[in-house]
User: Fold these one by one.
Assistant:
Number 1:
Amino acid sequence: MINKPIIVVAGEPNSIFLEIFFKSISTKKFKSPLILICSLKLLKLQMNKLNFKRKIKLIKFKELQNKSLDNKYINIIDVKFFQKKAFEKISKKSNKYINQCFNFAFKIIRLGISNKLINGPISKKYFLDNKFLGITEFISNEFSCKKSAMLIYNKKLSVCPLTTHLPLKDVPKKINKKIIEEKIVLVNKFYREKLGTNPKIGVLGLNPHCESISKYNEDEKIIAPAINKLKKLKIKISGPYPADTSFLKKNRKKFNVIFGMYHDQVLTPIKTLFEYDAINITLGLPFLRISPDHGPNEKMLGKNVSNPMSLIRAIEFLDKN
């Protein structure tokens, strides 16, 4: 194969992922072969439910290295999972199945057959069961990756939160110079190596207007010194800036990336600006891992109205890299 295949873990079986997968492969043609890891039975159930037609090619794991693949078919590694209907409620009963899907994907990556992974949305509440904050941390742990970061990428503007799926009351305790420096170095490295550019990075403060009525101000004591140290590494970085005005049009134009202190501080504005035209990239892994920037969306199951843009962008990105 000229292009290494893109491994696609379908994720939560009761999500809108297969719907947007069907729409994605109908909308665009991709050079890299797509290998879907999911239940064959579930795939057929959802194809019938959503009235989607395409031939299926069943792939045995041991044949992967010697099989010539293209996207005329849905190439699938079948992971057994019993489900009577196309859509059921999200619950813990899917955990073993999701874990098996990931294990197949991890084996393929470790064998060097692929270095590109997409996973569909997964319920953190049920699958992670408080063991990890998110799938970013779950996959990073699997590959013993101690330094990782979540980049929500759009070619016009990306964001990176220092902390991910952490309760707001715990955020200040997790902010320190070392983690800020580590994550921004990862962001800078990604832009330089994968995108061929030295990014301009703006850093947000933790407190409203970067001011605090408390004696201890994290923006002055932690964030500003970390920025000053990173400047010495020739990184184009500035801040801290007030979060409430940094996403105004004239301000956001100054940056390629806005780095925030917590999840919703940067994800809320980026999703407001670009909606589904953004992808979630895990930085720091020895391969490229991307997920569409949305959740399982249980309320939309079977309605066939979900927007596939984020998944299309994820496949496009991996198709070029």
Number 2:
Amino acid sequence: MGNFLNQNWLAETNEGFGIAVKIRKKLEHIKSDFQEIEVYDTVNLGKMLVLDGVIQLTEFDEFGYQEMMAHVPLFSHPDPKKVLVIGGGDGGVLREIAKHDGVESIDICEIDAMVIELSKKYLNSLSCGYDDPRVKVHVADGSEFVKERQQFYDVIIVDSSDPIGPSESLFNETFYRGMRNALAPQGLIASQSESIFLHMSTIKHLLAISSKLFNDSGYGMFQVPTYPTGTIGCCVATLGPDFRNPLRRPDETMLNKLKYYTHEIHKSCFALPNFVLKILQQQDK
């Protein structure tokens, strides 16, 4: 569970510092077959989902994460038709993918059915993504699921929690090799890849794997205030398209539905601070 400072404040701590959120009410607390799941009504941030004591999202700022995880790979592909989401049980990434009219099928593979159930109960602003008729739900282990779909998907999005517990297998080379084999020619992946301020070892690890298996890869960074350090990012890897310079951009109708993603934000998210570049350059030597 999260660490309560007192009856009104829940804190998530990481590497010696953290974030505290003022709570109005605990809505749910269960232990599934895989993890502790908590849902809170907060004072200023709307509803909040917590897994094993780690904040996964708040209604206040979830849009930045969901939009970037979905639209960066989708707008980088010339014509995405088949999309897979691994994890993402809250439905937010599904909601964003559904804004692309050209997508024909959206599979989601979530290992924990209770995350889906509680999101549908409490987080309708995200779980509305399940309402799209193109969505097909698979309750399964994503690392195994990709082995069943060879050269099938145009885009695979890994909306995972941290690399512990049920998500641990989504951060190794075997899984990334499975994703590569599940991609159609010209396919791309985007996977949740933690924060540059806390998890450079994880980022280096994922980029090293991706550089071995894909034509090109990189790390994009974006802001989510209720994540530790306020930043998080995704590892994007491609079998063809240049994800740093997207081929397409949202039309005016879609742009009016977006809060964070723009064509310019897409390109700029891959411009990293100098200390990160130096660490990654040391890895390349």
Number 3:
Amino acid sequence: MITLEVCCGSYEDCINAYKGNAKRVELNSALFLGGLTPSVGSLVYAKENTDLEVICMVRPRGAGFCYTDEEYKGMLIDAMMLLEQDADGLAFGFLHENKTIDVERTKEMVKLIHGYRKQAVFHRAFDMVEDVEEAIQQLISVGVDRVLTSGGYSTALEGADVLKSLQAKYGDKIEILAGCGVNASNVIALLEKTGVTQVHSSCKSWVVDPTTTSERNDYGFNKDMYDIVSVDKVRELKEKIDEYGNV
């Protein structure tokens, strides 16, 4: 069975993913920054109004994944708050400045998450490492349940060979979630090339908010559009996945 996870930036996105027949979402805020920690309210509302499995991002800022001690302490507090409100798991990633896995912080976060009997997911910070083999072995050694990855490339299709290798070598020890650039037009090719059983997609469309600018002012830095999850794109992707799974 192939699992679809939809990347969501709001409660509304979760509802749209749900209407499109997704079963699992990764809940964020600020997707234009690569995804940051969501509000507790969006998690609570999503859990109250759907039966989605909700994985929450824990990321305090944009840019990379090497955090100060103060940022890290705040991440642990956010993590506990989200877990207390019944998040099904947390997505996170810790790197050193040399782009290797910060094993100690990863281990501590995994211990916290597993203390609530939830899922520990290492996100695409993994795609910044130079030694993929060493990195995934480190994640396995500290008990990470799943890794979201494009195979270290700009898209999952470009990284298909790496994803195939990771799935074949380590798929029985850690779940491989293929993401980045996945859509209804390429998902079957990705599944066939890699053998992965989980895919991650944004399924996004764009909406214009006319209140962003006026003749005298530009509040949105020339950006009057925001992305939302498209019900139709989720449904189309899910249908393609189900079609592949039923062959």
Number 4:
Amino acid sequence: MGISVEHLTHIYNPGLPYCKTALDDVSFEIKDGEFVGIIGHTGSGKSTLLQHLNGLLKPSSGRIVVGDCDITDPKTVMRDIRRRIGLVFQYPEYQLFEETVAKDVAYGPLNLGRSEAEAEAAARRAIALVGLDYDTIAERSPFDLSGGQKRRVAIAGVAAMEPEVLILDEPTAGLDPRTHDEMLEVIRKLHCEKGNITILVSHNMDDIAKYCDKVLVMERGKLIMQGTPSEIFSERETLEAIGLALPPINDLIVRLRESGAEIAGDIFDIEEAEEAIYEYLKGKKRV
């Protein structure tokens, strides 16, 4: 299963003096099993795009095909879209509402028509996938959990519906560095174990470079670049022109090269950078 977005355009308040084109003729494809990152400044169209991918918004023109289903077709049943595509909003812990963790995570599967036994089994699997123990946490109130635990439970609630596409809008926003890293590992684990399409919106260029197979760059409603992390982050001047930076490690390597250091390859990982710099310095000492 893949995703095909064809000439997607969305205009807010069409025909009125304050109408705004939020998406302008956006087209791209995502292959089955890809981990895709979307970057761009606030107002670039990222959130509007996500809401189209989940069927929350309908386009002014264009279409979106997920697998064999045109989700922009008015005849498409919304429940079918929700079953296939899961969306985790920014600060998803604010979406928790049930009296226990077990009920909150099982709510989605129940709403899709699954039996109580099936919903409980799905909740157990999802809670384990996000690194929590079901028996320990199931009967606790989600509001008594830590911030990181709340976010894991919120993601589990979407994962329990076993979507073919998982969309996450800034899932690490507001988290401390340790919990941030743990949350990204949870998302990576979900992606690897389920083999689904994962779409991540983030302002953290390190995360995009480390986890994504493909990167989409949005600017003022247009898709201005798409490619692998190496391809995108090699366009330093283009990114800087729209106010985006390279991942810090990659930026360091680029600056070292500009100062004359002969360091080859695309490097986004701190361990790889450490090794490359060590090998360069060791070579200079031999000379």
